[in-house]
Amino acid sequence: RKRVVRISTGSKQFDSILGGGFQSMSISEVFGEFRCGKTQLSHTMSVIAQLPTELGGANGKVAYIDTEGTFRPERIAQIAERYGVDPEATQENIAYARALNSEHQLELLNTLSREFAGGAFRLLVIDSIMNCFRVDYCGRGELADRQQKLNQFLMKLAHMAEEFNVCVLMVSIIIPVHALHAVGLAYNACQTNQVQSDPGASSLFAGADGRKPVGGHVLAHASTTRVLLRKGRGEERVAKIQDSPDCPEREAIYIITNGGIND
Ligand code: ADP
Ligand code: MG
């Protein structure tokens, strides 16, 4: 029988609200606005997953699906140095793939399934889940198609997590409402329409914190654990558990350093 493993975030406080780190055999979603540290967390965990369990790792290889072009091998090397492990070997243990569009993103899972069958992989990062989908399915009329394809992708992900005892770390973004209305600023009109027409998005956050997630209810229901990241005071960042089968909705403060996520 496979045993669930936990992978550290790099921050003791963050780990403690998760009950020790993000778990294998399920999907975890981290979501938040720009620059709150989603990509930095993805990099940090890509290093830690390779470490022995005593150091919060899972002795495993890592697969990294990058849809935004923000993966930086140099950051991996810097984080490896923090943990005293060989930077090059650490980089080589990360199977990196740039997803070019949503079809390709789905195909990558099939390729990875074959690799995961070897049993060496413990972490799969997707940074970020919706980027290709919202570009490929741009018009309002295409929303149903998009959600169907997205659902297919998420079901495959959940299956892989369980079958191969892998921790899936799925990054998604939320867009501040003021940006939704400021057409032509951070987002083009196409993406703005996409978000505003997302069913479920408005009911999920219903004005509670003035933000709307991209991906709506299909995305929110796919993950077992959901963590909201946001900026705090100064350099501080805040992680808040939104949804978890076994952890209360607590908050933790973390920072981003040269060595990755830390306390
Ligand atoms: P997101 O993916 O949520 O948009 P990122 O994970 O890219 O955000 O985090 C961006 C933040 O990380 C920026 O505030 C940036 O200053 C910080 N950052 C990036 N590299 C380093 C580093 N080497 N040392 C400290 N902070 C860093
Ligand atoms: Mg990012």
Automatic annotation (TrEMBL):
Keywords in alphabetical order: ATP-binding, Cell cycle, DNA-binding, Meiosis, Nucleotide-binding, Nucleus
Compartments (UniProt record): Nucleus
Ranges where the RecA family profile domain occurs: 3-174, 202-263
Gene Ontology CC annotations of this record: condensed nuclear chromosome
Gene Ontology molecular function: ATP binding; ATP-dependent DNA damage sensor activity; DNA strand exchange activity; double-stranded DNA binding; single-stranded DNA binding
GO biological process: chromosome organization involved in meiotic cell cycle; DNA recombinase assembly; DNA strand invasion; mitotic recombination; reciprocal meiotic recombination
Principal localisation: nucleus
Entry's family note: Belongs to the RecA family. DMC1 subfamily.
This protein's name: RecA family profile 1 domain-containing protein
Biological classification of the source: Eukaryota, Fungi, Dikarya, Ascomycota, Pezizomycotina
